[in-house]
Amino acid sequence: MPLLGAIVLLIQFSFVYHVFKTGRPYWWMFIIMAFPVMGCLIYYFVEVYPGSRQERQAHKAARRLIKKLQPDADLKKRAEELEICGSVDNKVALAGECFNHQMYTEAASLYESCLQGAFAKDSAVLFGLARACVEGEDWEKAEAALARLQEDAPKHRPLDVRLLVARTLQGRGRNDEAQAAYQALLPEFVGLEARFRYGELLRQLGQQEAALQMFNEVIAHAKRFASSLEDERQWVVAARQAVTPGR
To answer: Is pTM beyond 0.85 here?
Structure first.
């Protein structure tokens, strides 16, 4: 029992330290010390958990569940909003939902319809158009949209734009240029997508050993930085599938 008491006391002091370190109200100290276990639990769920990574993950899981139960709810809502008011904001919102539902042609058409008047050179709209065209494998339109984006808004998400350029070169069969674009991008790009896409290009070119190295780098990153994988998980899963024998 003395050992258990010492452990509880250590936990209490840790929570008290957190109170002072983070600038929480000092009265939390009295609750924590007066109610050894319950006080710590109350403090955690009231002050710590709401901003924690665990809570963010719980919210993301809840949103994914809602999406599965009502997959088209947001799309329907955005379409209704556009029907009521044909503003650029509503068009962009609907285009984003179309993109999320892999309706890339529709997304591109909506983005294109926004490129007039004050929004003729809007960087977010141009980027959305370029991205929709790349995902929809409309390489000619993608190339034109990316050229406009680089000319009119060269500072808008430059690394993401360069990745889209590399994918467009690959899609158009300009593999030497695509390979050079990926190689120049990799040292600067934050995230796993560029490495995975470059691995796909290498495999497409028959460079199996180099492709496997890229895929294994993606997997190794996943092991080292497991806490930051939420938005990168699809590339890790795809890389693991790519190195599976028989694929």
So the answer is: no
